[in-house]
Amino acid sequence: MWSVVDVLQEFHPFTLSSAPHHANLTLHIRAVGPWTWKLAEVYGDKASSAKYPEIYMDGPFGEAHQNWWDYEEVVLVAGGIGVTPFASILKDMVYKLHQSFKVIRTKQVHFLWTTRSQKQYEWMIDILREVEAADKHKIIKVHIFITQFKSKFDLRTIMLYMADRFHHSECGFSLFTQLRAITHFERPNFDSILQTLKKECKANVIGVFSCGSSSLSHAVERSCREMNRAPDIIFRHYYKNF
Fold first, then answer.
1. In this structure, are 28 and 140 located in the same domain?
2. Number of domains in the chain
3. What is the pLDDT along the chain (242 residues), one digit of tens a residue?
4. What is the pTM (predicted TM-score) of this model?
5. Which domain holds residue 15?
6. DSSP per-residue string spanning 41-82
7. Same domain? 80 vs 2
8. Same domain, yes or no, for 102 and 35?
């Protein structure tokens, strides 16, 4: 069993990944220490006939990403495992889209996810596929940025990039993910992305929500401040760091 010392000396963020309408609560927990390793072992052993230990939870507590529906134009920026809270948001969007398009004030969602490799987002594919299937009005635009090849942009990477772009333009979905989401083999240029949104946006205020490393949040914040130099469209940035 876990000792009090184990619990007190280790800090692990537990991220809710289920939507409010779900009957069951799902969590994503980073296993990086003795008691979270044990937690993964106990709950991951499906063959075990032992009774699962009880878990006591307190909450709910407020969180900055919960007010995404207050904005007509929304930008969601995830870095690595920082995608987990957006998994919950996207599931909630799917549910609301199934209910009625009119229940959502938000008219356009731009979901940007930066990840090192394809393997790191395979678990998210089913969620994105469900989102795209429910999004009949196509209000959600997904861009996946794979940064693993950043320092090794060789001929192989160029060919992969060109093949995926061609397949996407011809068939309407990615060769690698089978999603409408566009795959990029680079880091996102937030200045360029926000500038493009600013030109196309019809709303006066854009809600920007980021989750990931502090460097990611700082990069998004700098770009938002740069865009806010001209007060015609305001970018409001909310962030959470892992």
1. no
2. 2
3. 444 444 445 555 677 777 777 777 777 777 777 877 887 787 776 555 667 667 777 666 656 677 888 899 999 999 887 887 888 888 888 777 777 656 577 888 999 999 877 666 666 777 788 888 878 878 889 998 888 755 555 666 677 777 877 777 878 878 777 788 888 878 899 999 999 999 988 889 999 999 888 999 999 999 999 999 988 899 999 998 87
4. 0.76
5. 1-61
6. HHHH-TT--SPPPP---------GGGGGGG-SEEEEEEEGGG
7. no
8. no
What's the sign of the alpha-carbon dihedral 174, 179, 183, 189?
Answer: positive
**Is the same domain home to 28 and 138?**
no
What would the two tokens of residue 82 be? 């920082």
Helix residue ranges per DSSP H, the chain: 4-9, 34-44, 84-99, 125-134, 155-171, 190-200, 214-227
Query: 53 with 154, same domain?
Result: no
